[in-house]
Amino acid sequence: MLDGKPIFMVLTGTEQPSRNSKTGPMLQTWILRSDVNPLDAMRFNEDVSICGNCPLRGSEGKGRSCYVTVARAPYQIYKSKPNLKKIKKHIFKNRAVRLGAYGDPAAIPTEVIADIRKRAIMTTGYTHQWRTCDQDLKQFMMASCDSEQDREEAKALGWATLRVKKADDSKLPGEVTCPASEEAGKKMTCYNCGLCRGGDTSDVVINVHGVGFRNFGRVYG
Length: 221
Fold this sequence. Notes:
By secondary structure, this protein is of the alpha/beta class. The chain is built from six helices and eight strands; from the N terminus they run ββαααβαββαββαβ. It has an eight-stranded mixed β-sheet, with helices on both faces. Helix 4 links the parallel strand 3 and strand 4 (122-127).
């Protein structure tokens, strides 16, 4: 949906629950180029097909502030392509789903996202494409915001927001600190929380985290 290039979405955690201590036992979706391994996609800016205009991706693999280490899960998932099985829709019943453990869910057709939400007990997700994507997606995910101005613009378009900030920046009126974050003392997991489900939920704020946190706010490329 972002640039017309071939992509695929992989679901993990169907048999063994995710070991992600922040999200808890949610099914995880990973969105990847189907014709380019994710390391090369990152190095040659082909990851625009699954990340769009996300400023956290840096340029040519440099200056990334994204929390995802591409050489780990995304690369291993890509290598497992020959062994993947087609998703059976009943797998979502009574399960919670994290949309976009890697990749922007706006790269996936809205009707696919809507069908997952209909079948699951809950989904969480974020998109940096909130200015340009199908605006119906605002009922299923949060607008990813990296500044106060981003949040103001997203709110004007009717989105619930997830804003990433530096640790010493202030929380804005109307924002709730992510209960699963370090700064909130990891009070609960995403599985137990569900604030980042989109629609009429609260706005959420979290400190930048992950291996590239020092690059947050810098411009590359």
